Recover the amino acids of this structure.
């Protein structure tokens, strides 16, 4: 019985070049002169030379058998073109909804040490959202929903809707993985980096691990989420680097 078919390297060199699309100019990666396309055969036009060069490096680093798991920037770019572009508004609204149930708004009722850790880590970001984004959010202790001011939610939504397709693609993992729109926007705006955002989202989990012992599977899952967030942050930065 034959094994599973796997795509193999067929090119000698990955090179970037300027390209034109229906929406304007950009950059593309070519494999021996042939432009890389998405899995759905759409043109993969990238916003910056820096992002194109980083994606070309991923292709050049492939050995005999292509391993998509080692190509996070390529996968993100494909997602931007094939998935986010045709449903931009739906994705943006989905991410904006996290503002109404943001992780940073929901605090523990006990013990005091956890309450203090959350306040120390999360209050500065709540204050930042209120001042820099003009979107103050209410805080509650417990799991019962706390209604947020509609004007704050509209301002957060406007921040999301103002992104381009590559920014929205990056924001997706930076919001859904930690469970916080505020943390995601803070990374995009340089208020903190993805590693710090990941750590802040895990205050509860780290408290539990310190109290009851670490769980190997949980730690492995956390490392995987961190890697995804770091990749999303890099995708965002490269999409802004001229």
């Amino acid at each position: 019985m034959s094994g599973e078919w796997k795509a193999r390297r067929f090119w000698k060199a990955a090179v970037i070049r300027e390209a034109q699309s229906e929406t304007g100019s950009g950059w593309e990666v070519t494999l021996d002169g042939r432009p890389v396309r998405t899995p759905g055969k759409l043109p993969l036009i990238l916003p910056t030379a820096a992002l194109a060069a980083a994606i070309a490096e991923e292709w050049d680093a492939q050995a005999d058998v292509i391993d998509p798991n080692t190509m996070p920037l390529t996968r993100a770019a494909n997602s931007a073109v094939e998935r986010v572009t045709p449903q931009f508004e739906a994705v943006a609204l989905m991410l904006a909804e996290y503002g109404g149930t943001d992780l940073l708004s929901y605090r523990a009722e006990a013990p005091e040490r956890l309450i203090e850790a959350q306040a120390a880590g999360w209050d500065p970001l709540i204050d930042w959202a209120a001042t820099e984004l003009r979107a103050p959010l209410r805080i509650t202790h417990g799991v019962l929903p706390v209604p947020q001011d509609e004007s704050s939610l509209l301002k957060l939504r406007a921040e999301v809707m103002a992104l381009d397709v590559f920014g929205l693609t990056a924001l997706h993992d930076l919001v859904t993985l930690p469970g916080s729109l505020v943390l995601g926007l803070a990374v995009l705006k340089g208020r903190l980096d993805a590693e710090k955002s990941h750590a802040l989202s895990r205050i509860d989990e780290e408290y539990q691990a310190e109290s009851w012992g670490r769980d190997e599977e949980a730690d492995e899952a956390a490392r995987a989420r961190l890697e995804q967030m770091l990749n999303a942050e890099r995708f965002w930065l490269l999409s802004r680097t001229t």
Q: What stands out?
A: The two ends are 50 Å apart (CA to CA).
